[in-house]
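Lab notebook, bench 4. The sequencing result for the construct came back, and we need a structural model before the next group meeting so we can plan mutations. Quick request posted to the team channel:

Model the 3D structure of this chain.
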Amino acid sequence: MAVGQARARPVLTSLPLEILFYFGGWYDVLFWLLELAVFIYKGYALPYPSSNFAVEFTFIFLFLLIEPARLFLGSKGNKTERAGPLVFSMLLAAPLIAFFVYYLIRQTYVLKIEQFLNGAGLAFLGLQLVISMFTALSFWSASKVL
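Done. Here's the predicted structure in token form:
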């Protein structure tokens, strides 16, 4: 190999995963704003038990703590071709899956718009998880070869 030439190494980052992280982040903003509006509507229009309303309303703000960190770690792991941040991103997906499932079927009142919003959120999260697993495996196997 001549001086100044780098060894050709394939790029392992996943463009589909990065696209899902990007649009998933925008979907999360839309989801959060619409879910907040729906909760305000439900608080005024429906006979909500106050203890249930407080807990379910608080969960929306917990979503704001977990999801940006998950998206950041996943995107960083993908861009730097490191499996570690991607694995942490996948671990942070577990409480979000529970969140979406709870809001999809277990909350006090589930409106049709919430079924759509939470179903789409689960779809984004599921696709991100599947592609993250394959991407992390490719990063891990490439690091073992080098």
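The mean pLDDT is 92.
Will bring this to the meeting.
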